[in-house]
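Page 42, continued from yesterday. The earlier attempt failed because a stray header line got pasted into the input along with the sequence. Redoing it now with the clean sequence only.
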Amino acid sequence: MDGVVFDGDDPNELRDAPTSFVIGSGGERRAVDAATCADGSTITCEYTIRCATGERTTASWTGIPVTDLLNIVDAPAETTHFRVESDDGYAICVPVADALDGVIAFERDGEQLRETRPYALRFLAGDIDGERLVKGIHRVDLLSLPADADPDRYETVTLDNPEYE
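This time it went through. Structure tokens are written below.
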């Protein structure tokens, strides 16, 4: 993958990059600047977001494919869940199979999110409800949960930052 990737779990390594986040699997952590991957490691997809209100919005989103993120930290074959956390602590934990068609987006309809929204990154995936598509991403964890584990234990699904529309 092209772009800026730093070893370590300190997002401050990329403090001047508003499109940075940390990805981890097991003990391995990497800081990634999504926008610097725009030179060939990104995709543009159309997603329709279904909000909790019932409203639907369709847009073209550009970002790093989840499948590429799995390679950044050499995700083990046993990876079962994809946990995404926002900078305000909101977090979801979804089966990795549900996230595979997703992206960590930094553009919507050709415009940088950080220039049109109060956040710079958003997680999107086709089979995940709109209220669970995390805005303001800070961290992504790849988890290998046992079959009897409750993925809800890894979530913090309170309303995210009210500035995030």
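Notes: The longest strand covers residues 56-65.
Reminder to self: strip header lines before submitting.
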